[in-house]
# Entry
Amino acid sequence: MSSKFFTNTEGNTLFDKFKGIVQGMPNFYSFHAVVGFFRSSGYFELRKELKDIEKIQILIGINIDDIFRKHNRAMLMFGNHEEAKSIYNHDFIEDVKNAGYSAEIEDGILQLCEDLQNGKVEMKIHATKNLHAKFYLCLPEDHTSHSGGCVIMGSSNISESGLGLTRPPRYELNVEIRDYDDVAFCKKEFDALWNQSISLTLQDIDKAKEKTHLGYPPTPYELYIKVLIDSFGNQVEDDFSISLPDGFTDLVYQKDAEIQGFQMLKDHNGFFLADVVGLGKTVVAARIAKRFVEANGRNTSILIVYPPALELNWKGTFRQFGLTKKTQFVSNGSLSYILEGKQNYKDKEEFDLVIVDEAHGFRSDVTNRYDELQRICKACRPKGGLIPGKQKKVILLSATPLNNRPEDLFNLILLFQDKNRSTIDGISNLQTFFSPLNADYKEAMKERGVKKNTDQIDKIYEEIRSRVLDKITVRRTRNNIWKHEEYRKDLTSQKVQFPDILPPKDLTYQLGEGLHELFYNTLTSLTGEIHYARYCAVEYLKEEKRKGSTSPKNIGANLKGIYRVFMVKRLESSFFAFRRSLDTFIRITRDMIEMFDKNKIIVAPDLRIKELQAKGMELDEIINYAVNKGFEKSDILFAADDFIEKDGKN
# Structure
């Protein structure tokens, strides 16, 4: 049921309403507001939506009850213009002081100064005790009964909480009215109040600004402290420590990653753990998880999403850290079990922390498993915990966070961030930030060999790294660790060494007579003539048999591409390696043919069917094995006529 009322609940906020009006009212010319309170943080967010509006007028009341009560003791009536400005300036100064180092509020104040200077915005203060109204007019240049326009009335001021931008949002009650007579009446009232009020000028703001840190140039030391706080937050004085299991070394660089990552979880609901291979990402993730459990409470629940090959590593590490009872593990191809309530998995809402290994495998938002992971990560945790907020915390592990398109990075960040309301300093709207970069990247990639395009791509990645990734990523290389004096001493004292990686050597060899032609004929067969049909079974499943797989053609194409590259690499490695791989390829293809001949085709990537067949297990044994593992027989076992032949016939 639709309603003219809205309460600042999710998707139904005053801010959302203003965005809708801006987008849906092509002749939107002027914006007029009467509010009791005005906060720079709220103005900054609203101003970005009103950037194309020609005329903005804001009439501010003040906290009149307290002020009147104070002056009434002296038998004074409130109406002094200078005192009204003085009170507003006091509120302005408190706004700046309470902002601490919030870039959003500083930007909002500087934007307000610029708007007042160039005449984009007019502001006035109403200096009487009886102005309690709050309403907003959105009008065309010539407001008539046929030209549209509306008024919003209710309890919301121009502030983050009034606009519904705080989390959780504060309850407000507002109503939108579009009737011409009602809107015209409110415009008449606004004009009357406006004429009674006193103007607030840039000079007034400048006087107040001089009494804050915005009014004087900071010293080098103050700049240094601000950089530390912006870069490291509360971790500068973090003295929390956990007891490590027997056999684990308390390395300083891992502890620092734990501190930094935990702070990012609290500030941004997630982050990338992107240390290079060999620095112990699994251990760091376990340390953060341990700390999260202690901070959030005993009812905390964790989900680990892992590649099948790393199952034992994750389960073993979390068992040693004493986290097994609070953790459930799922392979990255079986997320549907959680969404469908299979194999005793908890409901998606029950998890407080989600850790995703090899997260770059979820970079494409058109895949079914990205959709599944996002549904899990974005499901609110209704019970919450001692750490406030309903949104899950997410750790994405990847040694190659930047080896992705800007669009891929955007998709991964959305697993823990709201695209329209980012918590990342300086980036309030991720979609607005990434959209032009995605377009520039696609254009530059059309001619990758051209140097200017290569430079453009580097520039795009540098902007993403400096403005976004640096604030939500923990990443160190072995070289970074070894060059850090404290880390190096710690490693040396505990006799930990990183192996020296020698630079690659160029080895050129000549193929003998006759071998040259054989090599390139084989290469041609691998890359063009062999279809790798063994890996395309799911592509030819009939629509009704796909069990929720939304992109079987993409799956088949990806698998074919992976195996094609693998075979070429084996050929280039050595003829012996290639012969072994070719034998394996022939065997698994024959095994697939055998399944079709016996009318029992098993499709279950998590079971590693090829390996089970290589061990000599019969098809019925494999089916029983799968059922014992918790698989539904109908989900993994298919008949030959469940597939479509390449020519379209059954």
About this structure: DSSP finds 25 helices and 16 strands in the chain.
